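EI: anyone free to look at a 531-residue chain?
SC: sure, send it
EI:
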Amino acid sequence: MNNNSNSIAQQDKLNNGAFSRFLATVEWLGNLLPHPVTLFAMLAVFIVVLSGILGFFEISVADPRPLDAKGRAPDGMIEVVSLMNAEGLQRIVTSLVTNFTGFAPLGTVLVALLGVAVAEHSGLLATAMRSIVLNASKRGVTFAIVFAGIVSNTAAELGYVVLIPLAAMIFHSLGRHPLAGLAAAFAGVSAGYSANLLMGTVDPLLSGITEAAAHMIDPDYVVGPEVNWYFMFISTFVIAIMGTFVTEKIVEPRLGKFDPKNASVELEPQLMQPPTAKEKYALKMAGLAFAIVCGILALTVVPENGILRDPETGKVAGSPFLKGIVAFIFITFAIPGFVYGKIVGTMNNDRDVIAAMAKSMNTLGLYITLVFFAAQFVAFFKWTNLGTVLAVKGAATLQALGLNGPEVFVIFILMCGLVNLSLGSASAQWAVTAPIFVPMLMLIGFAPEVIQAAYRVGDSVTNVIAPMMSYFGLILAMAARYQKDLGMGTLIAMMLPYSLIFIVGWTILFYIWVFVFNMPVGPGAATYYQP
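SC: here you go
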């Protein structure tokens, strides 16, 4: 049996030679791209130059919005506005700071991360993940690892840094191939990136970009962080099931039996330490604190006269509760995190809490730098009307081709997955593509909330085979511990089945959820755009 499994693995390596060369070409092409910060700076300059050229030729399109729509020109035309003139230069230099400080994702991500930082640095999130995995039966360990990987996305880097190496150790301790455990965790953390039971920092980040793009068509449109929560909640279980299937039926059999001689380091027998009695007690108290906080918040929205319901309509949709959801993300992570830390001794006072928050802020230097240039690009793109003009032209093309129904999302998801191979950052990719595709798909009748949900599917599924993904090198180094001759092609070949199964299964789930069951993708989220 072992020889058969090993021969399958060797045959796979031979068969994947051409595929590995293809991915090496993708990596080479991706390396030709400049740093994301430089890329956004170049794109901002390009927009200015392009607006000058198109403005000189007076490029315009007919405005498809109703006659009384806000922002519609009296002549019913949308013209490209040039920034290559005195007025454009004045607008650029006077708005440079406000473009940055007013960029929607910036503040929301920073606030949400402050709360997550308390839960992470207190040890709450790491202990919770250990409990999920180690309390599962041997048969359910794979599901538990994929599931924990998906849930870990709430805390950004935690899954990559903690869970993935932990999963390899768990499989090794159970006599299973450690690379299969690594693959299962990597699939949950990265290919299932957008799915989650709770909202995390990615939700306000993406919704802010989506809202800015929607304003090209409807200046009053609001996209809250919660608009994809229903779909992402159910996706968590579907992705966990698919990840378990791929691991146990495809990846692990092809890897065969693990031979410690192939490892690049001397491996000690792995015995995973379960949470201590104090950690278990702290986890229970943190859970109680979380339940109390949720109960108090429920009192503000569940009753018909709840103080955080919409004061005019009395509904939850559009209410102060949903508009302030980032503040509640902060609270629901920070309070249980401090309770846990106080009990186990990792957080004793306010100084420890502040230190945890500051430590997380210290890691955001690159993100803040990127946001500065991304904000300029988004602002310039909006001022020039290039996004709106391109959207109108694109919508007309889709309609001419007969692609104005739900099937357009299949193409959209595949395209997002392809772009993700060379531009791995979810926010960076969406900042570039949202100003084009959100208005375009709005013009053929789909709401921004649904468009964003579809984007999140495509953006997630190819993370595990994208050499440009920021943590890909880290995962490669982790995998090389267990197979000394492991190369990038081997890792990508191992992860490719996850991408293929996830993109098919998740796209089908999206179509059934939205267009067959007619379910909203989130609280108060529309499926179709009504001007």
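EI: The CA atoms of residues 442 and 529 lie 6 Å apart.
SC: 👍
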